[in-house]
Amino acid sequence: MATNIYDKLRAGVVTSSAAETQTLAGELAAALPADIVLALHGNLGVGKTTFVQGLARGFGLTEPITSPTFTIFTLHRGKGPSARTLIHLDAYRLEHANQLDDLMLEDFLTPPYCLAVEWPENVAAWLPPQTLHFELGIMPDERHTLRLR
């Protein structure tokens, strides 16, 4: 019996390169329902933005994806009839969830969308209950880990 991407991620995955992490995220992108929020937990440098780059590729987005640390969030709109909007939020500089109201982020959550949140701990009260939470980490040998909670 084939393991689906959710089972694979719940068990935990180890990747040896950015390309492997991006491929895994692209596989997840193909399986995600419309209108989903992903919370990406992990320390600085564990591959959160790399993961979002893979999601973007999986959604068919071709523009460069960089960390929105200073802009807080970036909006990437796909083209075509089955296009998806990817909103990439870096909550590192936010001190509480109420600051999201000032960003008017909900105005950009037009279906079908995927909101990927780096540093979700800073806006935990704002995240919907159906948010998918991922733990990202680095092993002593520099390989990266990814697990769906």
Distance between the termini: 22 Å
List SSEs in N-to-C order. HEHEHEEHEEE
| Major β-sheet strand ordering | 1-7-6-2-5-4-3
What best-fitting shape do the alpha-carbon axes yield? globular
Query: What's the number of structural domains?
Result: 1
Instruction: Give the rounded overall mean pLDDT.
Output: 88
Q: Name the CATH superfamily classification.
A: P-loop containing nucleotide triphosphate hydrolases
Poorly predicted regions are none
Give the number of DSSP strands.
7
Instruction: Output the CATH class name.
Output: Alpha Beta
CATH topology: Rossmann fold
Report the major sheet. Answer: 7 strands, mixed
The helical percent reads 10-25%
> Structural class per helix/strand content?
alpha/beta
Percent in strands? 25-35%
C-alpha Rg, in Å?
15 Å
Number of helices, where a helix is a run of at least 4 consecutive DSSP H or I residues: 4
